[in-house]
């Protein structure tokens, strides 16, 4: 799933390539991707791209403010398997709106068949969501977002954790509490901070909160710096190359050499290093035990 660093890089890629270009046509290949219907996507035709913004893990392509109609924002949440792909040229034949292939929506800029971008989604679980709204706060997921992970001060971060009973892994991926962090970077942040994923948020000492805050800032900032400037096509590989524990089950921890372990749930899993994070004790995996200690 694209997280804060990748979405920020995609926004920058659009700022570098799409700015001040008018929309020639919008093709919808999967009607289910559209979560709003008024205004229709055809309202973008002739509109000029004025910016690209990130809200947590949401990406917004911003269009000119017209006196007779106001601004418009094409907002997407890429979910688990969605992606944005830039093209210098594309087929001028509109796709059939079957929703069976990876293409969900295509935006032609300057001219039909010219440059632009596609929103795509791999796999059979179609969760990619697109909204066309005059105000980004009209997108329900954005309206519910907590503070951005890179906008918090240390003091505000400590206040956010105080008194909370959630396990720290669950809390820092809850977008209503803290926006932008997903499964992969939460694994990396907790490994860097040397914290168990099951540590209780409100029971962390001041020193551990310091370590967690520094790890969050460091991991995300480093990932943004590595990602911004990369082409959209290379961002996934760039993300994988920077991971130390996430998706590395069975491989040696690059810090201590212990074997990276995994805990799996019904629809997700996370990775950690026992030596670095849990005092050498492996966490029980619900695939083998009903009790997680």
UniProtKB/TrEMBL annotation:
Annotated GO biological process: base-excision repair
Quickly give the catalysed reaction. 2'-deoxyribonucleotide-(2'-deoxyribose 5'-phosphate)-2'-deoxyribonucleotide-DNA = a 3'-end 2'-deoxyribonucleotide-(2,3-dehydro-2,3-deoxyribose 5'-phosphate)-DNA + a 5'-end 5'-phospho-2'-deoxyribonucleoside-DNA + H(+); Hydrolysis of DNA containing ring-opened 7-methylguanine residues, releasing 2,6-diamino-4-hydroxy-5-(N-methyl)formamidopyrimidine
Q: Which InterPro entries would you find in this protein's record?
A: DNA_glyclase_Znf_dom_DNA_BS, FPG_cat, FPG_N, H2TH_FPG, Ribosomal_uS13-like_H2TH, Znf_DNA_glyclase/AP_lyase, Znf_FPG/IleRS
One Pfam match, by short name? zf-FPG_IleRS
PANTHER family in UniProt: FORMAMIDOPYRIMIDINE-DNA GLYCOSYLASE
Query: Which family does the record assign?
Result: Belongs to the FPG family.
Query: What is this protein called in UniProt?
Result: Formamidopyrimidine-DNA glycosylase
| Native source species | Pseudonocardia oroxyli
């Amino acid at each position: 799933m694209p997280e804060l660093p990748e979405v920020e890089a995609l926004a920058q890629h659009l700022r570098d390539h799409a700015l001040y270009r008018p929309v020639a046509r919008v093709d919808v290949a999967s009607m289910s991707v559209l979560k709003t219907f008024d205004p229709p996507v055809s309202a973008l035709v002739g509109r000029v791209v004025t910016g690209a913004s990130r809200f947590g893990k949401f990406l917004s392509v911003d269009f000119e403010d017209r006196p007779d109609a106001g601004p418009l924002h094409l907002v997407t949440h890429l979910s688990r398997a969605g992606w944005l792909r830039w093209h210098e040229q594309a087929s001028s034949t509109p796709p059939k709106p079957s929703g069976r292939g990876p293409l969900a929506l295509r935006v032609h800029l300057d001219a039909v068949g010219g440059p632009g971008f596609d929103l795509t989604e791999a796999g059979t679980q179609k969760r990619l969501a697109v909204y066309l709204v005059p105000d980004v706060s009209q997108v329900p997921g954005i309206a519910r977002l907590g503070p951005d992970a890179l906008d918090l001060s240390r003091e505000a971060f400590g206040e956010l954790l105080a008194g909370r009973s959630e396990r720290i892994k669950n809390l820092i991926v809850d977008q209503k509490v803290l926006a932008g962090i997903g499964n992969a970077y939460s694994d990396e942040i907790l490994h860097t901070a040397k914290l168990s994923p099951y540590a209780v948020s409100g029971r962390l000492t001041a020193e551990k909160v310091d370590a967690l805050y520094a790890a969050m800032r460091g991991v995300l900032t480093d990932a943004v710096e590595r990602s911004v400037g990369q082409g959209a096509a290379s961002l996934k590989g760039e993300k994988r190359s920077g991971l130390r524990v996430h998706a590395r089950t069975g491989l040696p921890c690059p810090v201590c050499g212990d074997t990276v372990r995994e805990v799996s749930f019904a629809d997700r899993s996370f990775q950690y290093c026992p030596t670095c994070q849990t005092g050498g004790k492996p966490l029980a995996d619900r695939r083998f035990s009903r009790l997680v200690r």
